[in-house]
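Dear U.,

For the methods section draft, I wanted the exact inputs and outputs in one place so we can describe them consistently. I've listed the two proteins in the order they'll appear in the manuscript figures. Please don't edit the token lines directly; just add comments below if something needs changing.

First protein:
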Amino acid sequence: MELGQGSSKNGAMQVEQVLFMNGGEGDNSYANNSAPSREATLKTKPLLHESLFDLYCNGFPDCIRFTDMGCSSGPNAFLPTLQVIEALDTICSRLKHKPPILHAFLNDLPGNDFNTVSKSLPSFYERLKTERGHDDFGSCFIAAAPGSFHGRLFPPCFLNLVYSSFCLHWLSRVPRELVSECGIPLLNKRDVCVAKTCSPSSVHKAYLDQFEIDFTSFLKFRSEELKTEGRMVLNFIGNDKYHTGVFELMGMVLNDMVYEGLIEVSKLESFHFPMYNPCVEEVRQVIEREGSFNIHQLETSHISWSVGYENNNKGLELNAHARAKNVADNIRAVSESLLANHFGSAIMDDLFHRFTIKISAHLEMGLGAYTVLFIYLIKK
């Protein structure tokens, strides 16, 4: 079955089955190629701290239940949990209170590399012991919660805080308007996502409609799982209409490979990334229409595609190819599962080599940044 075909239920199931970040700790793993997500998490820290201060001071709970939705694997998997612990320690030290017990749930799709996450738990607890003075497991319990955040995951009125970083631009399915049930491309032929310069308005509407369905469901389910006045802190990739999306460049590379006879036309025309990058107003309208949350903060910032390479080479002359390779490796870590499932794994090395060259040309023009939405919501 092609990605996005079939009924709404089957289309969603297909994405759940084939979308996952590259596991393990190898060269192409998400663990070693996730700097933009890490940067977004670091930029979200002040909002997270503010939400925890508001939450804790509103009743001084003995236990806080927190979930990180879309945790993936590698070092980033525990970073939000560590930030929550640090914030609670700081807040409680200032108030001269004993920190509450933290029950953290790490959520991602079932295909996520939870084995690597589990193997990293002992070292994480050891880090808490040495750096934060947590001598036993009594102050922090961590559990995995596999499943799609587009559906219900927790009991009613169970959570205090929901967090998600760099995930909500992923849709539950490819918009049904793009490909028929028998796999015939209907719209956006040869464009793998919403392209700013050439996608017709009908394609933009199809993606926007699917985003509105998914984000509305996300808000509804989280409102049921959160306690009254529970907090939600989110960041995900948005759209400011000025920055070309990195996946648009991927579409150009795939088209080049079609022209050279390396990929069948029908294969490209039936492939679409299940993602949409909304603008601020599109997000605001969904939140206000769904009605379960008050918007405390909704703003944007930019993160360089090559932030990891730049941070590791501060003060040094940047190598254009190495910088582009860093970006391509990051995208490979998050998209290879989808691409290999549809086009086959045999072309992946060639595809990402070409992708590196395309990115390098883009970066040389002074371009290449993600627009990231940062959101703080309070349940009514």
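Second protein (the one for the lower panel):
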Amino acid sequence: MSNKRVNDSVPSDRQKKKSYFKSKASKNLFFLEIITDEQVQAGMGLVVGMTGFYITSEKGRERKSVKEVISLLSKNVEKMYPEQSIYADQKETDQKETVKDETAKDEKKEKKTLDSIEDMVKAELEEMKKPKRRSIFEPIYTSMACVSFISCPKSINVVDLIKKIMVDTATERKKDTRYTSRIVPIQTTCPANLSSISESVKAIGSPLVDFPNSTFMVVAKIRNNGNITKEEITTSLGTMFSSHKVDLNNPDFSIIVEVFRGNCIISILPDYMKLRKYNVTSLFSDGFAQPKPSVNEKTE
């Protein structure tokens, strides 16, 4: 009898399957409630309109890569944007700053009285309990090997920031990353359909349309999406910039369009070939790429 009761209490495979789909359904309902039309999340953790960075790294080292890139970004933001805090909770910190200043002297006196080891250990434990400050750079991990993202405030010019890092790496032959290959700026994200991609490129590339003597190329990649093709993207964007010449070797700017499932990341980058496709490892080891003779074609 006892054995039978034990077996009855263990859920069968069918029960487990029902429970699994029930939990999945409830989760899907929850997401449908919190996601608006303006901000569509299509897996991968990307949100429409997001700015940030696309990271490629060694397989299995994605988290370490993101951590070192955030450290690198923070260091350079402090130099380029001294007025920009690298912490997301800065406003709250500023409000508490007055109180901290008033109690600073008292805290110093208290530290002097920590004569015993017991008091010192207690003080360290209290310090550890304090909440960690949240960075303005938010990691976005994916289920895709070697691929991660980082979001950041729109007040930061992601193209200028990464270009500086790449140029410094190539000229000084010094890098602060170990597991990271590419750090590509993301100027915007949109749903992975042709009309949304065209509208997004037009929005961020409108200043370039007014300078028809420039050269450009389209770099389009599709991952896990069979509803749109590279050829459709290059043809559409080529028409948009028809007053410009296409240069596949040394363009003035490159339109980067990368589709990940239902989402698309977009950037218009300068010196894409010279900066070795924004590959920090290659720039560190080989420096700037030597420009090849220009090749003009209608498509990439």
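Candidate sentences for the figure legend, describing the second protein: The domain at 52-80+134-284 is CATH 3.30.2130.30 (VC0802-like). The mean pLDDT is 80.

Thanks,
Y.
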